[in-house]
């Protein structure tokens, strides 16, 4: 709770290597720069349930973005 989103993303990057959006219209952007409603849309449409996107889903859950 004491970390800023940027600090949390940096720690996440050190642990998982994932801090940027890996695909889609926000590909390459920092996760903190992606609108939260985009993550909700991905979740609603099942994109985060694909095995290829497991790391992204875990990262978003750790950051409480989904």
Can you walk me through this structure?
By secondary structure, this protein is an all-alpha fold. It is built from 3 helices and no strands. The protein has helices spanning 5-16, 36-44, 54-62. The two termini are 16 Å apart. The mean pLDDT is 86.
**Count of β-strands:** 0
Question: Kindly state the mean pLDDT as a whole number?
Answer: 86
Query: How many DSSP H or I helices?
Result: 3
Beta strand %: under 5%
Query: Could you describe the largest sheet, including whether it forms a barrel?
Result: none
Global geometry: globular
State the share of residues found in helices, binned by percent: 40-55%
N-to-C SSE series? HHH
Distance between the termini: 16 Å
**Which parts are unreliable, with pLDDT below 50 for 5 consecutive residues or more?**
none
Structural class: mainly alpha
* C-alpha-based Rg, rounded: 11 Å
Features:
3 helices, mainly alpha, 66 residues, 45% helix
In short:
It is built from 3 helices and no strands. It is globular and about 30 Å long.
List the helices and strands and how they pair.
Blueprint: H1 5-16, H2 36-44, H3 54-62
